[in-house]
Specification:
This protein has 5 helices and no strands. The protein is mainly α. Helix 1 packs across helix 2. The chain is elongated, with a radius of gyration of 24 Å.
Amino acid sequence: MRKFWFLKGFAIVAAFIFIGGFAVMSLWNWLIPSIFGLVTITWVQALGLLVLSKILFGGFRGGGGWGGGCGGNRHHFWKQKMAERMANMTPEEKEHFRAKMKNRWGKWAEKSEENKD
């Protein structure tokens, strides 16, 4: 079973590399020569551009690049600011806020109550 999982993961990564390189090569060769007058590129050069963009901008999955996945420390700042805001609310304001969130997002309040237990 574990071997199958590894082969499936390998196939997905290989397909992503092949399709990603082909997509970058096709887009480059379609747009760049006609817009900027530059030469066309090969599939290997397109893979190089894909890796370079990953290094510079941190694209494929969370983290990397400038600031990291969800904006670096901004996520922690937002979380801290919301915790301070909730701490300064009266019990009536907290209940009103929870009711408002429940109306907007469904069973949000019930899920947070279950997670406390």
